[in-house]
Design goal:
261 residues, alpha+beta, 3 domains, four-stranded antiparallel sheet, globular
Amino acid sequence: MDYFIPSTGAVLSAQQVQLNYGVNPNSVDISNLNSFGIYPVNPGTNLYPEYLYEVTPQYTIVGQYAEQTFMATPRPLALAKENASEAEKALSNEQAELLIESSGVNVNVWTGAASQDPASRPPIYNTLLNEMASIGDNLATNLTAIAAATSVDDINNIVNPPSGIISTGRGSGLGPEDLNPSYYTQFNSATLTEADTELYVPGTATVIPYDPGLPPPYIFDSSGDCFNPGNYVIQIRVSATSEVIAEFVVPLNPLSQNVPF
């Protein structure tokens, strides 16, 4: 555990506290520790990638502890675009290497299979090559979006999309084609809020907007059937850009359930 010293702004380890103040924080009551102006740090989570932002930790005394948060200053846009593009290429290369490794098939065999007519190619190779093509397509989409971005926050939304958990399901209202009232139980993003998102049903081109007027804790409701029978894919999107954050199949559960994204 680290310790914050408000009088100097320093953050010290337990060993450094003992060397500088003659106090062993591991054996001193926290009230006595506070009396020396020493506060244990409750570490925060840094959601800002440092290749896009200059990140500085900050500390606020709350009760007997110092709460850690992070202040982020965007790097120059051109540099951020360059860094983000390189990071996306590295990620795609890693995904491709893992795909080849997990297939157990030598890359030369892949290359030979790719040159064959897809119609006569063994189905197992079609599956693998389609997965590889998907990696390439995602990279191309992200590189294009990064190049067109007008702010570092926009770039972060592309390369570091939100993650979390949404409580959702279908069947609580009119039937299995009706989305249950839904809400996030967890939403993690440095640059987007829940209010910046929407749900979208590709099968019916239905947009379900964020609605703070719903009874808490709900923020999304289809207000009727929104799915075609048998097709229950839904997307979480950035409402301003229609950028897809996540896509999943909504479970048939009138009581709803937590779905991570």
